[in-house]
Write a structure and sequence with these properties.
Layout lengths: L3 E9 L3 H12 L4 E4 L6 H5 L15 E2 L2 E2 L11 H14 L4 E2 L4 E6 L5 E5 L2 E10 L6 E2 L13 E3 L14 E5 L3 H12 L4 E4 L4 E2 L3 E2 L2 E2 H7 L13 H6 L3 E2 L11 H6 L3 E3 L2 E4 L4 E4 L3 H25 L24 E3 L4 E6 L3 E2 L28 E3 L13 H25 L1
Parallel strand pairs: 1-2, 1-8, 2-5, 8-23, 10-21, 11-12, 11-21, 12-17, 13-16
Antiparallel strand pairs: 3-4, 6-7, 7-8, 9-22, 14-15, 18-19, 19-20
Helix pairs in contact: 1-9
Amino acid sequence: MHTSRTTTTVIVGAGQAGLAMSRCLTERSIDHVILERGEVADSWRHERWDSLRLLSPNWQSRLPGYRYEGDDPDGYMTMPEIIGYLSGYAAVAAAPVQTNTTVTSVATSHDEGYVVTTNNGQWKARTVVLASGAYNLANVPALADRLPRGTASVTPLHYRNPAQLDEGDVLVVGASASGIQLALEIQASGRQVTLAVGGHVRMPRVYRGMDIMWWLDAAGVLDERYDQVDDIVRARKLPTFQLVGSPSRATIDLNDLQRRGVKVVGRLAGITSDGCAQFSGSLRNQCELADLKMNRLLDGIDAWAVRNGLDDETERPHRFGPTSVEASPTLSVDLNAGVRTVVWATGYRPDYSWLDLPVVDRKGRICHDGGVTDSAGLYVLGARFLRRRKSTFIDGVGDDARDLSAHMAGYLDRLAARR
């Protein structure tokens, strides 16, 4: 028979966000438990494709009290390396993780605080941190239901490698980080890939001899706070950087993919009743806008380098050629004529179906102010642009966790003072 236990804080999720929060709470002597549905770093173990590497270089893997200490700081961790890194962090921090514990409900208690129900019993806590991740569910558009019979539908959460796909052509929908990586890998397997391109953030892997993430980190771009941008709702919806982590540090953009044989088309706009995929005619505009924004970013980096005396210490500024777009891009493809698989690289969304609290909007997203919800003592961590642009990077959850643990400490002090 399961018992009910009590702690000050329950953290849901033992990925980088939950582990970072645990370390910060330990430093503040706030007792807590981490409830994890599987193992430490479970999403990295079971919901990533085989060849995936981090988009950020290894030196940027920094968590509270812990950082990458390997011999390849400029490389990009593979999935086994990420799992080992996070498992090592949990061990060093002595994180109080309860594995194989699935949270089925978080609700308010009859007194102050929360009741967290799991498959292994209940926990009562004054505060709860939702660190279960921002990538729980694939955000597949409704028009996927219109795919013709015999055309497989795959998401990055279930894709592992090209060998699992049927022989035949592949349509990849979405050209952010996941989309370009999968298009590259699947094309290299001998299948013809068509890539449907909507809004995207073009980014060089290396600029002026340094990884682009070095520039974004050094110049403070990734540290921009959520309360410093004009439209945080829009900022949280922006596509991820169009980057690939590889030993060669190669820039993989739409030009490179086209040189490798990938056919580039506009945003997927619809699928007809007879199985014809229709694409927007805005491909050129989307690419020109991405080129413009990239060059504005590089202009900003150049200006920062001058102001900080780095202009003569790094390679000279240079620009990348515009994205190549056909004079008359393809506007439709008959999915019955050779396309055997559609890969939906259309983003992700969190799963809060187990949250029995009025803090979720109609699209299933947590309503919060920098991770602080309207339900006193309930926090969210690891969401996109939570408090900083880098919030979903391993390097970003630490600063967010420090901020939220400080807020929580103040909240608990106020509770104690009322007693």
